[in-house]
Design a protein that fits this description.
2 copies of one chain form a homodimer. Helix content of chain A is 43%, strand content 5%. With 168 residues, chain A is mainly alpha-helical. The first copy, chain A, has a two-stranded antiparallel sheet. In chain A, α1 (6-20) crosses α2 and α1 (6-20) crosses α4. Chain B binds a DNA duplex (30 and 30 nucleotides) through residues 5-7, 27-29, 38-41, 43-44, 46-47, 50, 57-65.
Chain lengths: 168, 168
DNA sequence: CATATACAGGACCAAAATGGTACTGTTTAA
DNA sequence: TTAAACAGTACCATTTTGGTCCTGTATATG
């Protein structure tokens, strides 16, 4: 399975949490708490997203991070690119005629590019706003679910053993 | 960068080599030699591709592998799926309501699916035939290039140091 | 029928990538 | 001035990946 790494997954989770209180400045620690993503990773990710101008960092006391733009103007493609570099499927990529050690024999690059572009398009078509969780608090599926939310159990805190599965 | 792993990359290289002599039965050892992919990996990959009905295996003396279908009827999506499982971007995938440990909190799955489907579409749109190298032998770019081909230097044999780059 | 050839299916290991840790700056609000 | 919070960097542990090795089974051929 082609997969984004955990970090990128984390980033989307974090960002969609931040998009909730749009524009507000939040500390890394707060985000870690809210999203359940381990603090060191949160802080590493926030730095990267800051550099990529997806977030604005506010230094000093009372500082933190805030979204640089409205969630609907931040594409998933941008997030992925910020964290994993250019969207592409193999090492044989991009016009970059330096990367692939076998240009004369491996003439596939053009076609991989076609695939890559399609993928990039797909990621560009989805914005952070599209990825945001629905506001459960207003429409809890059950008492049990509401309890989970109130006790602050979040994504990364839920171990496979204690997994909550939606009834069929 | 989102990337297929080396194995899948190898597989496409191998398969496109096989598609050259279409239908012919070739041994794993021969393919390894031709494509420059290490034999153990070749053999592992061929087994997997056989199971997925992309290749037909012929056991016993004089055996080997042959393409199960014409190259143009084998999609890249199929190859990827055979080797890496279902095409999807995160663990939060597929209707499969067992995989994600945070269904009630992570309501993104639907949107990831949208992205995933687009990617699968992109991969399905490219066939093995599309990925095949053009027949250089008939149209060598230079004497040097022809030499390389004659001496059997292939993709994986070319080290970065001895990289052949096409003149601009 | 005997035998060499080739695939089938494991268990297993080493190297690389990933995710997580720790620590030492630097900036800034109060 | 001080404490809060980000910036940057080096480092380590774990997991994943790619590759090895070995034993078993099928089959063409002499």
């Amino acid at each position: 399975m082609i997969r984004l790494n955990k970090m990128t997954d984390y980033a989307v989770v974090m960002l969609s949490h931040m998009a909730g209180d749009h524009g507000k400045v939040v500390t890394a620690a707060r985000i870690a708490l809210d999203s359940g993503v381990p603090l060191p990773s949160v802080s590493k990710l926030l730095k990267q997203l800051g550099k990529a101008n997806i977030l604005i960092s506010h230094r000093g006391a009372g500082g933190g991070y805030s979204l640089g733009r409205a969630a609907k103007n931040i594409s998933v493609a941008e997030i992925v690119t910020a964290l994993e570099g250019p969207i592409a499927l193999t090492a044989c990529i991009d016009g970059a005629d330096t990367s692939c050690g076998s240009l004369p024999l491996c003439a596939m690059s053009g076609h991989w590019n076609q695939v890559n572009r399609a993928i990039e398009g797909a990621l560009q078509g989805v914005s952070l706003a599209d990825m945001m969780p629905r506001p459960f608090a207003f429409k809890p599926a059950s008492d049990e679910l509401r309890l989970e939310i109130k006790t602050g159990v979040q994504q990364a805190d839920i171990k496979p053993e204690t997994q909550i599965t939606r009834a069929p």
